């Protein structure tokens, strides 16, 4: 039995993705304190929504998707109802395996995971790192669970704040670019639906080229950039406005925020 504790944006994306790809609703418990939302989850997914302490008693794997600031209080509430046979998976940004272990029964295996919202579509990217009592079989279990909603890679925990900044927050950067490109098209007189379709499929096509061609992005970009052409004119403007530096510093800010959340 799997319990998803906290069915907000990320918890619900994981829940929906898992149910769409192989998990039966009767094998999944959910904890969600917002009663109206809990009712919606029961109706939409046919899952049992139970208090966190019940989930702790009944599930062998607990996937916790609360805000980082709420994690420690929840773990302190759950801990008396747990034993060290349970696998705890946390998707909270910044919360280290050491912090998780400090608030769980001694010897509890924990996995720190960083998914992203495309999990909802089965297109997630999740990185996982194990704690001090986490064996290969625990990581295999976490990986198999998260593989139902997309790709999974294992990383050293020292990389998790960077993962959070790149792929955890990453979808938002692409939506930001998409929104900007669509608005530019609309400002030029194009119907919004046409602009959105052009942008959406261009992102999908560019992602397929990046993932499947085996080429470095510089090579792919050069292939688009005809001498004296339109792309060169656009890229010159992006460089003039410091977009490369802005992205680098944005990702550093996200990494630093993730790292700061461990003390929350
Ligand atoms: N939103 C995203 O794209 C991603 C979020 N995360 C992580 O997922 C976690 C949740 O983030 P969001 O889903 O964005 O936030 P959210 O605010 O949408 O979800 C948090 C949920 O936890 C519930 N909750 C609060 N106290 C609770 C308790 N005591 N027991 C059970 N549930 C409780 C809230 O009602 C809410 O539904 C955060 O730690 C975040 O770092 C990780 C990767 C991506
Ligand atoms: O914005 C956040 O803090 C979370 C973590 C990664 C994506 N969303």
Tell me the CATH topology of the largest domain. Rossmann fold
On the 0 to 100 scale, the average pLDDT is 96
Q: Please write the CATH class name of the largest domain.
A: Alpha Beta
**What is the second-level CATH architecture of the largest domain?**
3-Layer(aba) Sandwich
Structurally, the number of domains stands at 2
Q: Give the termini distance in whole angstroms.
A: 30 Å
> Compute the gyration radius: what is it?
21 Å
Question: What is the CATH superfamily of the largest domain?
Answer: NAD(P)-binding Rossmann-like Domain
Low-confidence stretches: none
Helix residue percentage = 40-55%
Overall 3D shape? elongated
Provide structural commentary.
With 264 residues, the protein is an alpha/beta fold. The chain has helices spanning 9-20, 35-45, 52-58, 68-78, 97-102, 136-147, 160-168, 170-187, 192-212, 217-224, 230-240, 243-261, and strands at residues 2-5, 28-31, 48-49, 61-64, 87-90, 110-114, 124-130, 150-154. Helix 6 (136-147) links the parallel strand 7 (124-130) and strand 8 (150-154). Helix 7 (160-168) packs across helix 12 (243-261) and helix 8 (170-187) packs across helix 9 (192-212). The chain starts with a strand and ends with a helix. The structure holds 1,4-dihydronicotinamide adenine dinucleotide and (2S)-3,4-dihydro-2H-pyrrole-2-carboxylic acid (A1CAB).
């Amino acid at each position: 039995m799997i319990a998803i504790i906290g069915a907000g944006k990320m918890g619900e994306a994981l829940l929906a993705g898992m149910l769409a790809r192989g998990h039966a609703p009767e094998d999944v418990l959910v904890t969600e304190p917002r009663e109206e939302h809990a009712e919606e989850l029961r109706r939409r997914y046919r899952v049992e929504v139970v208090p966190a302490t019940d989930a702790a008693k009944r599930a062998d794997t607990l996937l916790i998707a609360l805000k980082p600031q709420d994690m420690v209080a929840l773990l302190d509430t759950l801990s008396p109802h747990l034993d060290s046979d349970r696998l705890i998976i946390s998707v909270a940004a910044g919360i280290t395996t050491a912090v998780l272990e400090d608030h769980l029964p001694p010897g509890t295996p924990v996995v720190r995971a960083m998914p992203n919202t495309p999990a909802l579509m089965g297109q997630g990217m999740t990185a996982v790192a194990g704690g001090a009592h986490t064996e290969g079989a625990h990581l295999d279990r976490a990986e198999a669970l998260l593989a139902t909603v997309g790709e999974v890679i294992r990383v050293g925990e020292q990389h998790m704040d960077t993962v959070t900044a790149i792929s955890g927050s990453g979808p938002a950067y692409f939506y930001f670019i998409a929104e900007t490109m669509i608005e530019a098209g609309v400002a030029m007189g194009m119907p919004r639906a046409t602009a959105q379709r052009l942008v959406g499929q261009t992102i999908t096509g560019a992602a397929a080229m990046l993932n499947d061609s085996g080429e470095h992005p510089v090579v792919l970009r050069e292939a688009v950039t005809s001498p004296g052409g339109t792309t060169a004119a656009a890229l010159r403007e992006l460089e003039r406005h410091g977009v490369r530096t802005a992205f680098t510093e944005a990702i550093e800010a996200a990494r630093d925020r993730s790292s700061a959340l461990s003390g929350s």
